[in-house]
Specification:
mainly beta, TIM Barrel, Immunoglobulin-like, 5 domains, 8-stranded parallel sheet, glycosidase, GH, Aldolase_TIM, RGL11
C-alpha cells in the first residue's frame, strides 16, 4: 500500500472504531478514513479546538462595513447568540479604503496606511481608530461584550507602500526590497506579492501581526492565498511564523478556495481553517458541490484544523436589499451539512435584522452540539441522490445521523420540450422565428430561453406578440400574470428589452412583447380551453448591437422543465451503524423523539431537504416503537411532509373571549339577552339564562328548560326592570360555568346600542377593537379627532391626533398625543390593536414620530425626520417597543414629488407561521410597495422578513389596496398577505401578481364552495377595458370571471355579502367615482343582477336578522335589501363586526362625544360559534382600525353554519 507523502516528524493514522479502511480521494491521493493525527500537535491547534462560530461582514456589507455597523452586530451577538457559543466578530475586506463601494474593487484606490506601509482602518468608517488607536478601541468594545474580534488581510504588501517605498518597521529593508510585482491578485489590485526568499519578507509579516496583536485581534482571515495553494506555500509559512512570534493567539483562516487536496498535509500544519471552495453563495448548485468537497476533506478534519465550506449566506444579505435565496429546506440542509461535517460557522447575514426563523437556525443547541462536539464525522453512504453522514456523540454509545435528499442541479432538457427553435442569432432572417404550438388542453405554460451552448448568459431575447388561442377567442399573454420568472442578471418586462430600454425588433417598436434574456424561464397558468400558443421569438435590436454572442434558443414546455423530484424515503439499517438492539430516534431540528425502533427505520426527506437525528441504543427489553409517527416510520412510510421539510403547522388561533353577554330592556318591558357560543364549548353545550335583582344573589332561571338551539332569549316577565343577567354554560360533565353578570340597559331609540362616553364632545377617526386587559371582553382604542385629509388632496393639519383607550364598560384608560409630525389623515397614521405577543392582552401598534422636534416645512408638510412603529401597552399606553418604519428615502422614489404616494401607510397582522401573530408594516400603494414583518417577542420587535416589490422580477408596483387581508389561501395553516392585486406568501415572497393596478374593493372568502380553496373578488380603481370587476382563484390569481364592460374608476370598498335573498351565494356591489354607474353582481358566476344606486358607494352588509341573508346598513338605516328599513342608527360607521352577543354583527359608529355599538335585538334560532373565533375574521376586524373599512369576512361564510 502506498503511503501519502510524509513530512519529517509527522505520523498519519486514520481509523474508524479499530477497522482500517482505504478509499480513493483522488487519483493522486490514497488515505485512511478518520482524523489526521500529528505526532506533536502544533500549539496553534489549541486556539481552535472546535470549529469557530461567528459573524463576517462580507455577505451583508461587502467592502463597506463601518464601525457602527460592526458594533451593532456585536451587540446582537452578545445578547442573542453568545449563550449558544457564537463568539467571533470579523471585519472583512477593504476596511482600510475610505471610498470602498459595494462588492467591487477600484484600480488605484487610495488606502490608509501607517508610516511603515501597514494597512490602517479608514477613520471615516472607523472613527475610533483615529489618533493612532487603530482597531484597538473597537476590539476593546467587542472584548467587553465577552466576544472576540477578527479582521481580513490580503496576501502581500500594499502596492501603494511599494510605490512610496515605505520602510519596514524594525528592519533595514524597504517595501521595494521584498515586493514581487508580478504576483498580483487577479481580482483585487491593491497588493503586490512578496518574495518569501528575501529576509525582509518575514520582517514585513512580523511587523503586520505585531500590530494586529497590539490591537487585540483574535482571528485573521488572509485572502488571495489558498488558491493556487502551492504557489503561495512560502508566504503561508511566513505568516505562520509571524503569528507564532506575535505574542497573541490568533486563529488563522486561509481564503479563497478551492484549496487543493494535495495541500492537505501542509495546510493542517499552518492554518486553523482553509476554504475548500470559492465564495459560497445561496444557490443549490453551490450547496450541492459542497457535499463531495467536505467528504473528500474528511482525513484532514480535526481539533484545531478545519476544512471550511465558507460562510452561511442566510437572513438579510447584500446591504439589506434581499434575503437568502435558499428555500427553508435548503437552509436546513446547509446547517445540517455544516454541522455534521464540522465546518466553521460564520454567519453572513445582518444580525440586526434577524428574523425568527433564521434565529432558530442559529440557536438550536442540539444541532450546534453536532458541529461543536461530535467526533468521527464521515459520509456513511451516497446512493444517487441520497446521502447519509454519521458521527459519534462523545462519552456515549449514541450516534448522530444526517440524511440528505440531494439531487444534482437541474438542467433544461431540450428533448423534453413541446417545441424548440433552431439557434437564433444575427444571421437569422428577421432576427427570430415564428412559434405556433398546440397546447393539447395544458394548464401550464413555460417559456424558456437558453444560451444555445455558447455559455453567454445575458443575450437579449423576446417573446413578441405572444398570445393564447382558446375556445372562445384569442388572449394576449401579457394580460396574464406570470406565476414566476426565473432569470439571471436581468428583469423580465412587458414592452421593454432585457436592458430596460424600449423593445425594438427589426426596427419596429414592440409594446405587446415580453423582454427577457438567456437563461430565463417564464411560467404561466393557462386559462381553461387553451388550444395553441403563438408568438414571434426574436433577438431585439439592442441585443444584436451589443458585443455579445447574440445566440439563443427558444423552447416551450407545458410542464415544469426544472421540476424537483418527489420526496424520497431513506431506509436506515441500524445494524450498519453498529446497533444490535432497539434504538430511540430523536429529530434534532424539531427537538422531538420519533419513537423506538429495532432493525431499521425510515425517514421521508423532501428534495433539497435534510434530517438530522440522534440515535440512542436502548436495552433489548425496551418496548416496541411508540413515539409519534413510529408506526409509519417503521413501515418506511412516514406521513408526507410539506415542501418546507417541516410538518404542516396547525392552523392555530385562539384568543380568550368571554360570553359577550348583553341585555336590553325593550320598549314593551321585555328584556332581550344575547351571548357567544365559543369554539371551546363542548358539542351539545346547553345554556341557562338567569336574572338577579342585585347581581350577587337570588339568581333565577328565566326559562323552564336549558337552551339547546339558540344563544339569545327574550325575558317576557321582566316587567321593564333593569335586572342583572348571567348565562350558565352546562357541559356534558354537568358543571355550570356562569358568565360575568351584566345589568339590562334601556333601549334609547328604535335600535339598541351600548354607549361609551368620550372625554370630550369630539368625533374620532378610527377605532381598534381588542381585549386590552385580558378579561375576555373587547375594549376600544380610538384615534381622535376625526380628520379625513388625504395626501392626494392635502391640507395642513389643524390639530394633532390623540389615541384614547376605553374599557368595554366605558372606563377611560389613557391618552397619547402623536404630535405634529404625524399629519392628520388616515394614511399618515395607521394603528392596529391586537394581542401580538400571546399574553392575552392586546397591544397597540401605531406609526409615530418625535414629539419634541417639529419637522413640518413652511407649508405644513412633514417630509423629513424619523418615522417609527411604536408598540404601546394596551392597558397603560406606555411604549414597550419601537422600530423604524419602512424608510421614506427620497419621496420621488414613490412616484411623485409632493409626498402623496410616499405617505401611504398601512399595518396588518398575519399568522405567518400558522401559530402566532406577526405585525406587518407597509408603505406604498400606487407605485413602490414595501412590507416589513416583525414578531413581538419578550417586549422586542424581532424582524421576520422584509419585502420590496422593486426587488421582484418583474417588479411589483402599483398593485396595492387601501387596506390588507391576511388569510391562509393555500391551506398550509400560514397566512398569505393580500396587498391588493398582488399576494405575498407567508415567507415574504411574491405568490402572484395580477399586474392590473390598484383595486379599491377587495374581499376574500370561500365564494364558490364547490371549488377547492378560496376566491378574491375585485373592483379596480385603475382603468380597465374589461375585468375591472372580477373574481380570481386566491391561490393562483387565475381569473374565474370578469365583467366585459370597461371601467374607469371603481371607487371605495363597495359592499360584499349574501344580501340578495333571490340570488344564491354572495353579491358584490360597486360603482364608478366620476360616473353614475353602479352594479350589483352575483359573486359566484359574474351575472350582472342590477344596475342600481343604493345610496352610497360603500354601504355595509351585516348579519342582523334570524337567517343567513345579510341586511344592508346605509345612511342611518338598517334593513333587508330592497325592502323598507327596520332599524336605524346615528353617526358615522367606523367598524362592522361580531363584537357583542351571539354570532350576528354589530355596527360601531361615532357621534360627537360618544362611541356607539348598535346591536340587534331580534330573536334567532340559529346557533353557531361566534365569528370572532374565525382567524381571518378576527384579523379583518383588527385591520378596520386603519385604511378603508372593509368589513371582516369569515373564510367559510357561504357554507352551512356549524351548529354546536
Amino acid at each position: 500500500m502506498n503511503q501519502p507523502h510524509k513530512k519529517p516528524g509527522i505520523g498519519r493514522i486514520r481509523r474508524i472504531r479499530g477497522v482500517e479502511r482505504i478509499t480513493r480521494l483522488s487519483s493522486a491521493l490514497l488515505t485512511f478514513w478518520a482524523v489526521t493525527v500529528v505526532a506533536e500537535p502544533p500549539a496553534f491547534w489549541s486556539w481552535a479546538e472546535r470549529p469557530p462560530m461567528g459573524w463576517n461582514s462580507w455577505d451583508c456589507f461587502g467592502t463597506t462595513v463601518t464601525e457602527d455597523q460592526t458594533r451593532a452586530q456585536a451587540d446582537v451577538m452578545a445578547s442573542l447568540l453568545k449563550p449558544h457559543g457564537w463568539e467571533y466578530i470579523v471585519v472583512d475586506i477593504q476596511w482600510y479604503e475610505p471610498k470602498a463601494r459595494g462588492y467591487g474593487y477600484r484600480e488605484g484606490a487610495e488606502l490608509c496606511m501607517d508610516p511603515w506601509g501597514r494597512l490602517w482602518p479608514a477613520t471615516n468608517r472607523f472613527p475610533s481608530s483615529a489618533n493612532g488607536a487603530g482597531f484597538k478601541p473597537l476590539a476593546d468594545y467587542i472584548h467587553g461584550l465577552g466576544l472576540k474580534f477578527g479582521v481580513h488581510l490580503m496576501r502581500g504588501i500594499p502596492r501603494q507602500a511599494v510605490h512610496r517605498n515605505t520602510p519596514i518597521k524594525d528592519s533595514p529593508w524597504h517595501a521595494r526590497d521584498i515586493a514581487d510585482t508580478q504576483r498580483i491578485c487577479p481580482w483585487n489590485p491593491d497588493m503586490y506579492g512578496v518574495n518569501p526568499e528575501h529576509p525582509g519578507a518575514q520582517a514585513w509579516y512580523d511587523s503586520v501581526f505585531r500590530l494586529l496583536a497590539q490591537w487585540g485581534v483574535d482571528y485573521v482571515k488572509v485572502d488571495d492565498i489558498s488558491r493556487p495553494y502551492h504557489d503561495h506555500e512560502g508566504e503561508i509559512e511566513l505568516i505562520r511564523r509571524a503569528l507564532d512570534r506575535c505574542g497573541r493567539p490568533m486563529v488563522l483562516s486561509l481564503s479563497p478556495g478551492e484549496t487543493a487536496l494535495t495541500a492537505g498535509d501542509h495546510v493542517v500544519r499552518h492554518a486553523n481553517l482553509w476554504r475548500i471552495s470559492d465564495d459560497f453563495w445561496d444557490n443549490w448548485p453551490a450547496l450541492w458541490e459542497q457535499f463531495e468537497r467536505l467528504h473528500q476533506w474528511t482525513p484532514f478534519r480535526g481539533p484545531g484544523h478545519w476544512p471550511d465550506a465558507d460562510m452561511l449566506p442566510l437572513g438579510v444579505l447584500e446591504f439589506g436589499t434581499r434575503t437568502t435565496r435558499f428555500t427553508r429546506d435548503e437552509q436546513i440542509t446547509l446547517m445540517t451539512l455544516w454541522a455534521i461535517a464540522r465546518s466553521p460557522l460564520m454567519f453572513g447575514g445582518d444580525l440586526t435584522r434577524l428574523d425568527e426563523w433564521t434565529l432558530s437556525l442559529l440557536t438550536n443547541r442540539e444541532v450546534l452540539a453536532v458541529n461543536q462536539h461530535s467526533t468521527g464525522n464521515r459520509q456513511w453512504f451516497r446512493q444517487g441522490d441520497l446521502i447519509a453522514w454519521t458521527a459519534d456523540v462523545p462519552g456515549t454509545a449514541d450516534r448522530y445521523l444526517a440524511l440528505f435528499h440531494a439531487p444534482p442541479p437541474r438542467r433544461i432538457q431540450p428533448d423534453a420540450a413541446l417545441w424548440q427553435s433552431p439557434i437564433v442569432n444575427r444571421q437569422t432572417p428577421g432576427q427570430g422565428v415564428d412559434v405556433d404550438v398546440p397546447l393539447h388542453g395544458a394548464r401550464e405554460l413555460y417559456l424558456v430561453v437558453t444560451d444555445a451552448g455558447d455559455d453567454i448568459f445575458g443575450d437579449h431575447a423576446n417573446w413578441v406578440e405572444p398570445r393564447i388561442l382558446t375556445s372562445t377567442g384569442e388572449l394576449a399573454l401579457i394580460q396574464l400574470p406570470w406565476r414566476s420568472a426565473q432569470t439571471g442578471w436581468g428583469r423580465v418586462a412587458i414592452g421593454r428589452d432585457a436592458g430596460g430600454g424600449p423593445m425594438r425588433v427589426g426596427g419596429r417598436t414592440i409594446t405587446n412583447g415580453i423582454g427577457t434574456h438567456a437563461l430565463s424561464i417564464l411560467a404561466y397558468d393557462l386559462p381553461q380551453g387553451a388550444r395553441r400558443f403563438r408568438a414571434f421569438a426574436a433577438l431585439d435590436d439592442e441585443g444584436v448591437r451589443l458585443d455579445r454572442g447574440a445566440t439563443v434558443r427558444f423552447l416551450v414546455f407545458t410542464n415544469d422543465p426544472l421540476a424537483l423530484p418527489p420526496p424520497r424515503t431513506i431506509t436506515v439499517d441500524l445494524a450498519g451503524l453498529g446497533f444490535r438492539g432497539p434504538v430511540r430516534v430523536r429529530d434534532l431540528w424539531t427537538q422531538q423523539d420519533l419513537g423506538r425502533f429495532e432493525g431499521r427505520f425510515a425517514r421521508e426527506v423532501p428534495p433539497h431537504g435534510a434530517a438530522l437525528l440522534r440515535l440512542t441504543p436502548l436495552s433489548s427489553a425496551a418496548a416496541a416503537p411508540t413515539g409519534p409517527g413510529a408506526k409509519e416510520l417503521r413501515a418506511g412510510a412516514q406521513q408526507a411532509r410539506t415542501r418546507s421539510g417541516q410538518e404542516p403547522p396547525q392552523a392555530v388561533f385562539g384568543q380568550h373571549l368571554d360570553r359577550g353577554l348583553v341585555a336590553f330592556v325593550l320598549t314593551n318591558g321585555h328584556v332581550f339577552s344575547s351571548w357567544r357560543l365559543l369554539l371551546s364549548d363542548p358539542p351539545g353545550v346547553q345554556f341557562v339564562l338567569e336574572r338577579s335583582p342585585d347581581g350577587r344573589s337570588n339568581w333565577t332561571p328565566v326559562h323552564s328548560e336549558p337552551l339547546t338551539n339558540r344563544c339569545n332569549w327574550t325575558d317576557t316577565t321582566a316587567e321593564g326592570r333593569r335586572w342583572y343577567y348571567r348565562v350558565q354554560a352546562l357541559g356534558p360533565d354537568g358543571v355550570a360555568r356562569p358568565s360575568t353578570p351584566v345589568r339590562a340597559e334601556p333601549v334609547e331609540g328604535p335600535t339598541a346600542f351600548r354607549r361609551i362616553r368620550l372625554q370630550g364632545n369630539y368625533r374620532f377617526d378610527k377605532v381598534g377593537i381588542a381585549d386590552l386587559d385580558g378579561d375576555g371582553a373587547l375594549d376600544f382604542v380610538i384615534k381622535q379627532p376625526h380628520q379625513v385629509s388625504d395626501p392626494g388632496v392635502w391640507r395642513p393639519s389643524e390639530d394633532t391626533f390623540k389615541l384614547e383607550a376605553y374599557r368595554s364598560d366605558g372606563t377611560f384608560l389613557w391618552r397619547r398625543d402623536l404630535g405634529w409630525n404625524i399629519e392628520q389623515g388616515v394614511w399618515w397614521s395607521p394603528m392596529l390593536v391586537y394581542d401580538l405577543d400571546g399574553d392575552g392582552r392586546a397591544e397597540v401598534a401605531v406609526k409615530t414620530a418625535p414629539t419634541d422636534v417639529d419637522y413640518r416645512d413652511s407649508t405644513g408638510r412633514v417630509t423629513s425626520g424619523p418615522e417609527w412603529c411604536s408598540i404601546l401597552d394596551g392597558l397603560t399606553g406606555r411604549e414597550i417597543a419601537r422600530v423604524d418604519w419602512p424608510a421614506r428615502g427620497n419621496v420621488t422614489d414613490w412616484g411623485d414629488a409632493n409626498n402623496n404616494r410616499a405617505s401611504r401607510h398601512l399595518m396588518g397582522v398575519a399568522y405567518l407561521d400558522g401559530r402566532k401573530p406577526s405585525l406587518l408594516l407597509m408603505r406604498g400603494t400606487y407605485t413602490k410597495m414595501v412590507v416589513h414583518a416583525y414578531n413581538l417577542v419578550q417586549g422586542r420587535l424581532v424582524p421576520v422578513w422584509q419585502w420590496c416589490g422593486d426587488d421582484e422580477r418583474p417588479p411589483v408596483r402599483g398593485q396595492g389596496m387601501h387596506g390588507v387581508h391576511t388569510v391562509d389561501l393555500d391551506g398550509d395553516g400560514c397566512d398569505e398577505i393580500v396587498l391588493g392585486a398582488a399576494v405575498l406568501r407567508s415567507t415574504g415572497r411574491i405568490l402572484w401578481n395580477l399586474g392590473m393596478g390598484h383595486p379599491d374593493a377587495v374581499y376574500v372568502s370561500d365564494i364558490l364552495p364547490h371549488r377547492h380553496g378560496l376566491e378574491i373578488i375585485y373592483g379596480f380603481e385603475t382603468r380597465q377595458t374589461r375585468n375591472g370587476i372580477c373574481l380570481v382563484d386566491a391561490r393562483t390569481g387565475r381569473l374565474i370571471w370578469g365583467c366585459e364592460h370597461p371601467t374607469e374608476h371603481v371607487h371605495s370598498q363597495g359592499m360584499f355579502g349574501d344580501f340578495d335573498p333571490d340570488n344564491p351565494g354572495p353579491e358584490f356591489y360597486v360603482g364608478e367615482k366620476f360616473k353614475p354607474d353602479r352594479w350589483t353582481y352575483s359573486a359566484r358566476d359574474g351575472r350582472l343582477l342590477r344596475q342600481e344606486e343604493l345610496g352610497s358607494l360603500s354601504p355595509y352588509a351585516l348579519w342582523w336578522d334570524d337567517g343567513w341573508t345579510r341586511w344592508v346598513a346605509v345612511r342611518g338605516q338598517i334593513g333587508p335589501y330592497h325592502q323598507p328599513p327596520r332599524d336605524t342608527y346615528e353617526g358615522r360607521v367606523v367598524a362592522v363586526g361580531d363584537v357583542l352577543g351571539d354570532w350576528r354583527e354589530e355596527l360601531i359608529t361615532c357621534v360627537p362625544g360618544e362611541l356607539r355599538i348598535y346591536t340587534t335585538t331580534r330573536p334567532s334560532t340559529v346557533r353557531r360559534v361566534c365569528w370572532l373565533e374565525d382567524r381571518a375574521y378576527r384579523t379583518g376586524l383588527a385591520h378596520a382600525a386603519m385604511g378603508y373599512l372593509y368589513p371582516p369576512q369569515p373564510v367559510g361564510s357561504w357554507v352551512p353554519a356549524p351548529q354546536r
